[in-house]
Every structure is written in C-alpha cells, then in structure tokens.
Design brief:
- InterPro entries: UPF0729_C18orf32-like.
- The protein has about 80 residues and is mostly helical.
- It has one helix at about 5-35.
- The chain has a domain at about 1-35.
- Helices cover about 40% and strands about 0% of the residues.
- The relative contact order is 0.05.
C-alpha cells in the first residue's frame, strides 16, 4: 500500500504547477527576485584551472604519502 501523503502531495504539486502557478507566480516573482538577485556568471580564461597534479598518488587518485596500511584485525 502507498501512504496517503505519497499520493496527495504529488497531486497537489501537479495542481499547483498546472493551474495555480500561472496566476500566482507573476504576483510573487518581484519579491523573489529581490531576495535572490541573479548574478552574472563570469568565465575565466585561466588555462591551469581544472588541471590536477597527480604526483604522489596511486591509480585511484588517493595520496600515497603516509601510512597506507589498512588492517581488518580488531585491536584491543
């Protein structure tokens, strides 16, 4: 069986999205845009961005410096 909220919530969201949002959104959009102003995304021309130095790593990209011993034995 499916619980009642699992049926009712998607139906209410569909009703809101289909019928109520076209009327309500134009009323609340000025307030929302004041709270969350859009900022322009800036593209950087940094060519070194995204490159990673892989020295000192194993095949999985994990660092090999330090203790890499993994023990499955339980220590008291």
């Amino acid at each position: 069986m499916v619980c009642i909220p699992c049926i009712v919530i998607p139906i209410l969201l569909w009703v809101y999205k289909k019928f109520l949002e076209p009327y309500i959104y134009p009323l609340i959009s000025p307030f929302v845009s004041r709270m969350w102003p859009r900022k322009a995304l800036r593209e950087t021309n940094d060519k070194n961005k995204g490159k990673v130095d892989c020295k000192g790593t194993d095949i999985n990209g994990l660092p090999t410096k330090g203790s890499t011993e993994i023990s499955d034995k339980k220590k008291d």
